[in-house]
Specification:
This protein is an alpha+beta fold and 442 residues long. The protein has helices at 2-38, 84-89, 92-95, 118-125, 151-157, 226-235, 242-261, 267-276, 295-300, 303-309, 336-362, and strands spanning 42-45, 48-51, 56-60, 63-66, 73-74, 77-81, 98-99, 102-112, 164-172, 178-186, 190-198, 206-208, 213-223, 263-264, 282-294, 310-315, 321-323, 327-328, 369-372, 378-380, 392-397, 403-411, 414-420, 425-431, 435-440. It has two domains: 2-372, no CATH class; 378-440, Roll (SH3 type barrels). It is globular and about 75 Å long.
Length: 442
């Protein structure tokens, strides 16, 4: 009799232990699935993976070296957050190619390592694209500067020891599309967020990550130190005069547009440009492609190519936007001989860029197919938004950018929430009648 009792107790213990063992085992498999996909962007290493019962998977001390670079990035941790039931109920084989209905990935305290400096220099040459949109004040920083910074000014603006943070959130919608937010944070400098609704280029249950389709991107920028440092470094090239730097920036932008596009910025947008250079500025924009683009094409675009292919609207308030339309050139004020020389230089530049594009096309990443599965994200009824007060939510409006933040109040026909970033925060009010959807996010 004792023998059967012992067997029964053993079976009960094993049955109680198995779900826990399965959960932790599956969590590690899923973490490796995420890393395996990311390995197509470059080389990854880490010092270990640990899991907690709330769905948080921690990858310790990840190091990432992007393809084509010798310099890499090292971080304190990567935290992957998924629904615990997604990790528990799916099989090991499913988790090797399945993505949950919603997912959060946070990479904390990222710094460039000292293996080389080519990645650091690429940020200079691209004017922080895609950490920032709008060339980050590079125009006119030195007298000839346009779409990239000069080395001397750059080294005064961005330290090689600058700390960055990265947050990704996505949520699959009922129509099969995927709402996505990517927040990039440079500590004590700035925060920027890219948001979009991605369509699957495959079918409703499987997606090819690199071949997702995008037609509109929402951009948000919050400055809390970068412009102050940048303005000081750039003004130093004009004997400390910020007004001289700003004037040269305007001149270089107009000259660049006349040379490359036979257009120039209208006066009303130049006033907005002046404002964008100021310290502690906050603004948002909508970028809309004429036709849907593959997401991989956006990743590969230079900032110049991107801005030339989208309709751009700049937020004048939290909910109103101004369409950026280039004006015709007033040739009575332009040195036509110099313009002719610059056009010839542009044609040669285009030829070189096309050769580079063709070479990169040969090395295009093979598509990776992932299956979507798991629990649905939590939607909040529009007639009961107040039930989510105190919780972290993602609000979509009928016109403006999606906003993630903690819901503070719903009163006087306004929804108020606070977006908290790593080293900055912003309080935002959205008219209740402009809210199209609300969902609770991890």
């Amino acid at each position: 009799m004792k023998k059967y009792i012992l067997i029964f107790i053993t079976v009960v213990i094993l049955l109680s232990i198995y779900p826990t063992w399965r959960y932790f085992s599956n969590a590690k498999i899923f973490a490796n699935t995420v890393l395996n996909y990311a390995s197509n962007l470059g080389q990854w290493t880490n010092s270990g993976i640990s899991t907690s019962l709330n769905g948080k998977i921690t990858v310790r001390n990840p190091v990432f070296t992007p393809n084509g670079y010798s310099q890499g990035m090292q971080a304190d941790s990567m935290i992957i957050t998924a629904q615990p039931m997604f990790l528990l109920k799916n099989s090991r084989s499913d988790l090797q190619d399945m993505l949950p209905e919603n997912l959060t990935v946070a990479v904390n305290s990222i710094q460039l390592n000292d293996n080389a400096d080519d990645l650091y220099q690429s940020l200079r040459q691209s004017a922080l694209w895609k950490l920032q949109a709008g060339f980050a004040g590079s125009f006119g920083c030195s007298k000839e500067a346009t779409t990239e910074y000069d080395t001397q000014s750059w080294e005064q603006i961005i330290s090689t020891n600058q700390v960055y943070n990265f947050d990704l959130y996505y949520s699959r919608q009922n129509n099969g599309s995927i709402d996505t937010d990517i927040t990039l944070d440079a500590e004590n400098m700035f925060t920027s967020t890219w948001s979009g609704n991605l369509k699957s280029g495959f079918n409703d249950k499987q997606i090819v990550i690199r071949d997702l389709l995008v037609d509109k991107l929402y951009y948000y920028y919050l400055d809390y130190g970068f412009n102050k440092v940048k303005n000081k470094a750039c003004s130093a090239n004009y004997k400390g005069s910020y007004a001289a730097y700003r004037s040269k920036a305007e001149n270089n932008i107009q000259e660049y547009l006349r040379t490359n596009y036979l257009k120039e910025l209208p006066k009303e947008f130049l006033l907005w440009f002046h404002k964008s250079l100021q310290s502690d500025v906050e603004y948002n924009a909508i970028f809309e492609f004429a036709e849907r683009q593959y997401l991989n094409k956006f990743f590969d675009m230079t900032q110049v190519d991107f801005l030339s292919q989208v309709k751009t609207e700049i937020g004048t308030t939290e909910n109103d936007y101004m369409l950026v339309e280039l004006a015709e050139v007033d040739y009575t004020k332009v040195d036509t001989e110099r313009l002719k020389q610059e056009l010839e230089q542009r044609e040669e530049q285009k030829r070189q860029e096309e050769l580079k594009r063709l070479a990169e096309e040969e090395n295009k990443m093979k598509p990776i197919v992932h299956t979507i599965g798991g629990a649905k994200s939590t939607k909040v009824p529009l007639n009961n938004i107040a039930s989510a007060i105190g919780k972290r939510v993602r609000i979509k409006t009928w016109r403006g950018r999606p906003v993630i933040g903690y819901l503070l109040s719903v009163e006087n026909n306004l929804v108020e929430l606070e977006s908290i970033f790593r080293t900055g925060r912003a309080r935002i009010s959205v008219p209740l009648d402009k809210v199209s959807s609300v969902e609770i996010v991890p």
